[in-house]
Amino acid sequence: MADNVFKARLEPSGREFSLTAGDSVLNCALRQRILLQYGCRNGRCSSCKYFLIDGEVDFGKTSPYCLTDNEKDEGWALLCQARALSDLVIRDQDISDRDDAAIITPQDYTAKVAAVDRLSAALWRLQLDLEHPIRFYPGQYIEVEAPGRPGNWRCYSIASSPATPNRIELVIKRIAGGGFSDQIDRLVRGFELAIRGPYGMSYLRTCDRPVLLVATGSGIAPLLSMLRFCAAENPDRTFQFYYGARHRSDLIFVDEIHQLEARMSRLSFNPALSAPVAGDEWHGAVGRVTQILQREVLDASPFDAYICGQPEMCESVSTLLLAKGIPENRIFRDDFFAAA
Ligand SMILES: Cc1cc2nc3c(=O)[nH]c(=O)nc-3n(C[C@H](O)[C@H](O)[C@H](O)COP(=O)(O)OP(=O)(O)OC[C@H]3O[C@@H](n4cnc5c(N)ncnc54)[C@H](O)[C@@H]3O)c2cc1C
Ligand code: FES
Fold first, then answer.
1. Number of other residues whose CB lies within 10 A of the CB of residue 246
2. pLDDT, tens digit, for every residue of 122-173?
3. 40 CA to middle of ligand 1, Å?
4. CB burial class (10 A; 0-12, 13-18, 19+) of residue 281?
5. Beta-bridge partners for 110
6. Which CATH number fits domain 4-94: 3.40.50.2000, 1.20.210.10, 3.30.2130.30, 3.10.20.30?
7. Closest residue by CA, ligand 1 atom 31
8. 38 close to ligand 2 (CB < 6 Angstrom)
9. To which CATH superfamily is domain 107-199 assigned?
10. Which among 18, 63, 219, 252 is placed 20 to 30 Å from 288, CA to CA?
């Protein structure tokens, strides 16, 4: 087992945890059930930007858009990338207004491929069997190590419900040349994958506020987990689900969501196509999800919003909903950033 070499103290809360040589400050905290704010775990989203009151770190791989050299000089660090070179004193963020649940400690698992099937031109479903059940909240993600590329981990949101902890389902967009996603059709039944998790703070909060779900493409995965879970646990909760795709054939899980609508009296599903073609015979909404939301959501203030998919879409939907009155602390985003 790795040595605990340094200590971190969060101020002013006084929370303390130990730091392991070579591991990120965030990983060390999560393993010890110390909740820090974070998102992508890849140095791309800035959610884990904290101020170092004292101590030295190796800043790791960070996007210059998320952490500038000036910010590093001032004492800011991305804790998902930073590795301690001394004891640290870190200024704590106040996240008490985000209804956070207790951390589920991330663990390592070996998963076996149970099934791989193609859902659309670009989207694939990967089902994995786990020998040991994984606990997670609906909306969280795992990391998968790319076969043949040790140490290359990719994040994927879990689409299945926590009610089936031995069989998880992922929705993966295939990207030409992608280190993991482009291998998807070569993953045969029984193939072993290393996974770890759960991670992520964009999980469904257990209150009764109405929920706005917004996704495009594979961003449907964590939202599907929430709906599948709530269909059994809280079928009367209000959900308005906006799902965008280019063509009819890119809209996945539509039949299942209509079945969920029949079980969940207050679920309204609003698919939209941005570029329908004649063969689509599409009679639903046309436009980008931002345009549909602009038209249809007059007042966003009552909602909790979960927005998942490409970072540009997440950003524009967040901006729109903020302008329509949603408080910032009730927007939960899963930006699907590529690994740094
Ligand atoms: C929190 C989180 C959750 C995520 N959940 C999902 C999920 O549920 N489903 C899913 O499909 N993805 C998800 N992603 C994205 C996923 O982790 C990978 O980044 C993605 O699958 C690409 O990995 P790769 O190994 O195939 O490609 P890489 O080897 O990482 O990249 C290869 C090349 O493709 C480019 N690239 C990467 N992504 C894209 C893209 N979307 N469009 C165009 N070019 C791209 C890269 O910049 C690079 O040049 C998530 C990301 C995060 C941070
Ligand atoms: S979690 Fe660290 S930059 Fe996204």
1. 19
2. 999 999 999 999 999 999 999 999 999 999 999 999 999 999 999 999 999 9
3. 11
4. exposed
5. 194
6. 3.10.20.30
7. 178
8. yes
9. Translation factors (2.40.30.10)
10. 63
